[in-house]
Amino acid sequence: MSAPSPSLEVQNLSVFYGPEQVLVDVSLDIFPQQVTALIGPSGCGKSTLLRCFNRLNDLIRGTRVVGNIKLFGQDILTMPSIEVRRRVGMVFQRPNPFPKSIYENIALGLRANGYQGDIDGCIEQSLTQVGLWDEVKNKLKQSALNLSGGQQQRLCLARTLALQPEVILMDEPCSALDPVSTLRVEELIDRLRQHYTIVMVTHNLQRAARLADMVGFMNVRQEGQHRLGELVEYAPVTQVFINPTVDATRAYVNTELAIAPLGQQN
Ligand SMILES: Nc1ncnc2c1ncn2[C@@H]1O[C@H](COP(=O)(O)OP(=O)(O)OP(=O)(O)O)[C@@H](O)[C@H]1O
């Protein structure tokens, strides 16, 4: 059986904030129906890399991205950014619903993208997908800000799913949530993998071990005054956690797990 085509092909990607280079020569292929987790110490460029996948770095003045990123074979660096952001959705660390009704949180994005179908039906479907429909169906006109943090995060995911993305990016999606909400969002991610490509940044190695198919370990290389982020090892989850091929990966994983052993992280 031939391997599936990658959803995202990243080749020789470097990122600069003004004169400072923060990512060096990152290459990796990310596959559909998989969760890919990016791990590594603070400041190694995980969020920067994630933001390249939906061109959010374009919004940061002075950012320069060099290299190639293809989304199902199409160059995303030359695609209209609105198309990239519809096809590659993103969920952030802190739930960020609009200060509007639950209904409008989803309807706004649909209208902005010229959706011509049944908006009510689409809202019901996406809220059902995230397990929120029964909880909110009688208060769709109420402010999304009245929902709990975990409900807000699922609403943000529903808002993303309503646009039928091909790839979903998640930057620490559970770190601001309580343990019960975390479990619900993790179960949701596990289910969503069947239909989407999911790329997730996490500091929580247990979360990566529970959810990821592939893991990318990123690290910082100090060169004089400069701190350069690089992708050190990219491999199936069991290899990264049990038998990494690079010493730096082993050192990071062992240190993190010594601080918070598997089974004791939330
Ligand atoms: N908007 C920005 N302008 C300038 N430098 C930035 C900007 N955003 C990030 N950086 C720098 O780029 C480097 C990588 O940051 P990034 O947030 O991508 O790392 P990270 O691995 O996601 O970190 P963390 O795990 O702490 O969230 C850091 O040195 C950071 O200070």
From TrEMBL:
Q: Where is the ABC transporter domain?
A: 8-245
State the SMART domains in the record.
AAA (SM00382)
Mention one GO molecular function. ATP binding
Q: Mind listing the UniProt keywords for this protein, alphabetically?
A: ATP-binding, Nucleotide-binding, Transport
Q: Which domain of life is it from?
A: Bacteria
Keyword flag ATP-binding: yes
Q: Which PANTHER family match?
A: ABC TRANSPORTER I FAMILY MEMBER 17
TM helices/strands, residue ranges: none
Q: Which PROSITE patterns match?
A: ABC_TRANSPORTER_1, ABC_TRANSPORTER_2
Record-given protein name: Phosphate ABC transporter ATP-binding protein
**Entry's InterPro entries?**
AAA+_ATPase, ABC_transporter-like_ATP-bd, ABC_transporter-like_CS, P-loop_NTPase, PstB-like
